[in-house]
Amino acid sequence: MQTVLDRKLLVITGKGGVGKTTIAAAMGMLAARSGKRAIVVEVGEQSRLPTLFGVEAARPGIETRLQEGLSSISIDPDRALLEWLQALGGRVSGRVLASSGTFQYFAAAAPGAKELVAMVKIWRLTRGGGRGRHQDGHDLVVLDAPATGHALGMLGAAQTFGAIARVGPIAGQTREVQQLLETPSHTAYMAVTLATEMAVTEVLELQAGLHRQLGRELSAVVVNALMPRRFSTEELGRIESLGQQTDAGADARPGDAATPAAVAAQRSVTDSAVRAAQAVHDRGRFQHNQLARLRRRDFDVIGVPFVWDAELELTAVADIAKRLERAL
Q1: What are the Cα distances from residue 261, in Å, to 207, 258, 266?
Q2: Fewer CB within a 10 Å sphere, N or C end of the chain?
Q3: Which long-range contacts (CB under 8 A, 24 or more apart) does 130-134 make?
């Protein structure tokens, strides 16, 4: 049976701030560990993966080797469009073209053009057409896509331009990109989310958008930062009764040797512990309800526990990769 790692392209998206880059890195590590040559594509000017792996990032558009079998590359859609127009303009320098009104006019008059050019670059990576050290191609391209709305716009750019450009090199590349995105054996789609109402709703909107634009479905949904369910309802009831017992004990022993300050301190500590237990229980129950929303839609849901570190390190990403491996 074909898994998400057996495709040419794995697209990972979801609401902003849910940990897409972390999951993209984990999937790249998992692919490399299985013997594949993988590359993770970041979209925009940032190159966060080299920092995570402790290596110096190359310039945008140039691959950076992260570890054996795994590299990364940053594709800036604005820069990609500029390079494409520069190629059409022959000897016109990128600096002159970028400052000209023609470039600004084209970028504004052709919405989706830069997204299409970025997708063409990603398509070329799946065919071994990247720049940098790995000229022999990649077994898997992991796209750390923008947040849901922008990702759908990026994925739909080929369809938009396909309706306009009927002939020529643009039309040919557009058809290749569209075929790559629509073919289940070539591309898989994963959503990353938190167990919050807004983030889960965005996953449902992503599923609807993929189906509408490409006739595709999500292969899996990764739910990040899950809190453990530490108490059952009965156990929480017993914990809550501790606060009641503290109050009753203090009232029943007015002549006790304990000072009022000591009694108040004990009551404060107990109340804080009870409230903390209630908060943990309520959050776990809410997250469980959001997981149920996803499972009712028959999604393949993969839970990733909350990482109790101020800053995510490579070892934590490796642990997430192992969890994903077991689930996939």
Answers
A1: 58, 8, 9
A2: N
A3: 130/39, 130/63, 130/73, 131/61, 131/62, 131/63, 132/58, 132/62, 132/63, 132/64, 132/71, 132/73, 133/63, 133/65, 133/71, 134/37, 134/39, 134/63, 134/65, 134/71
Residue 201 to residue 195: CA distance in whole angstroms: 10
The closest alpha carbon to 71, from 10, 140, 20, 11, belongs to 140
Mean pLDDT of 312-327: 93
Query: What share of the chain has pLDDT > 70, as a percent?
Result: 82
Token reading at 79: 């820069």
What is the distance between the alpha carbons of residues 90 and 248, in angstroms, rounded to a whole number?
86
Helix spans in the chain (H): 20-33, 48-53, 77-89, 94-99, 101-109, 113-126, 148-162, 168-182, 197-214, 233-252, 260-296, 314-327
83-134 pLDDT, tens digit each:
777 776 555 554 554 555 554 555 555 667 889 889 999 999 999 755 544 4
Number of residues that make up the chain: 328
* Tokens standing for residue 85: 């127009």
The pLDDT value given to residue 133: 45
What percentage of residues in the chain have a pLDDT greater than 90?
Answer: 55
Q: Identity (one letter) of the amino acid at 220? A: A
